[in-house]
Specification:
Elements lengths: L1 E6 L4 H11 L6 E7 L5 H8 L4 E3 L8 H13 L5 E4 L8 H6 L4 E5 L11 H8 L3 E8 L9 E8 L6 H24 L2
Parallel strand pairs: 1-2, 1-4, 2-3, 4-5
Antiparallel strand pairs: 5-6, 6-7
Bound molecules: glycinamide ribonucleotide.
């Protein structure tokens, strides 16, 4: 199973996938790692791991649709079986969803459909939930929407900060993402 992973930031969950592949735990080929901006640590750590990387820098494009087309062309050029959004903080266009229908997987640090968006951990804490978690789902053209594949609950502790809670969620998220990718690889 060939995957392309998309990131916008540090890519710590991606690193867990890279390690699982390297350790033989995950029977997947990471065809490439791409970002929507320049200089992400996610791309840097992928290059350090010897992976193919690319940047389709949103700011380099005059219009949103030009960027959409460039991203689709670049990702499609690797002929991936699945595309994984791992902290990729940009919504993709319907053309992208159509091209990878049922094959575009996203992770989110909350129990969707609650608390979608860029601040899922902060929003859950602000609401005062006592249990939150992470979701791996097939993404559609909405913000963290689409059929849910798997979820893991994570308790919110009284002493939690957004950072401490997000770190604990990411531990669960990494495990869940690797499990889901393994299940997809095994059909
Ligand atoms: C992850 O927690 C991921 O679920 C979240 O960004 C983090 C990326 O961390 N994505 C979203 O919030 C999508 N709405 P990482 O770059 O260290 O892997």
């Amino acid at each position: 199973m060939r995957i392309v992973v998309l990131v916008s930031g540090t890519g710590s969950n991606l690193q867990a996938v890279i390690d699982a592949v390297a350790n033989g735990v995950l029977p997947v080929e990471i065809a490439a790692v791409g970002a929507d901006r320049l200089g992400t640590y996610g791309v840097e750590r992928s290059a350090n791991a010897g992976l193919e990387t690319f940047e389709v820098n949103f700011k380099d494009f005059g219009t949103r649709s030009d960027w959409d087309a460039a991203l689709l062309e670049k990702v499609a050029s690797y002929s991936p079986d699945y595309v994984v959004s791992s902290g990729f903080m940009r919504i993709v266009a319907p053309d992208f969803i159509n091209a990878f229908e049922g094959r575009y997987v996203n992770t989110h640090p909350a129990l969707l459909p609650s608390f979608p968006g860029a601040h899922g951990v902060r929003d859950a804490m602000a609401y005062g939930v006592k249990v939150t978690g992470c979701t791996v789902h097939f993404a559609d053209a909405g913000v963290d929407t689409g059929p849910i594949i798997a979820q893991t609950p994570v308790d919110v502790l009284p002493e939690d900060t957004e950072e401490s809670l997000h770190e604990r969620i990411k531990l669960a998220e990494r495990e869940l993402l690797i499990k889901v990718l393994g299940d997809l690889a095994h059909g």
